[in-house]
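Listing S7. Sequence submitted for prediction.
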Amino acid sequence: RYYFKPNATEENGIPTVNLDVRSAERVLPNAPLIGYDDAFKTKALKSFDLVMRNMNRTWWGIPKYSVLEKVAHALHMAEAWENAMEEYKMIERLLDPESDICSCVTDIEQNGVLNHLNLIAFKIRYPGITSGNATFTNYYLAQANSTDPTTEDTHVREKRAPEPWKASYSQGGYSASYSAGRDKPSRFHRSMSFDGIDFDLSDLELLKDVAEKLVDEDHVMEYHIDSAEHWEYWKNILILSSEASAYYDLAMFMFCMLN
């Protein structure tokens, strides 16, 4: 509503990775109301407040991020959406939502969008799962054999990946699907085959296949934001492209889905 369509309903058709990582439903069929506090006027403070209100919920958002890192991510995404909003305004003037282009864009089961969102959900829940690193994958598979991480028993998820393993960021799918990072999506993300992957199955049933069949050498973040030096590492990843074309696809998707 804030960035694209003020009168968008809760049945908006925008598939969204579920912020509740305990849930068996990885991808929600509609973008939910996020719960911003209207007492704040700026998007920055609304985003900061949202993270702080959820800071004790270990199952919310990107679990392996610290509170500071979740704030950085929220502000990064706000900037990405702002950039996409400008492209949306242009597309809104030029494109007919009944066009063949929108027919293709909205067919999320055939065009790969739904598969990629499920993959992002896996990468958030199991950082490094597609890295090809046996240390990661063997750890998750061992955990999966003992406890279902999507249940209310969240203690397994909290200690699932010992330090220094941390959640991935732009390498973890966001640049390909949401954040329009400085680099173009890799050829792997553009041509990835999901043959033999049924995302209707549970995490437990899919972990092995995701780890073995969707290897993209996607590694986790090397550092937490715990020093000025490590902030520079994060900063280089968070800086968004200044090219309008980097946000065109995202804006096109939002326009076609919302109209």
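Caption to Listing S7: primary sequence and predicted structure tokens for the chain studied. The first helix runs from residue 43 to 53. The first strand starts at residue 16 and ends at 17.
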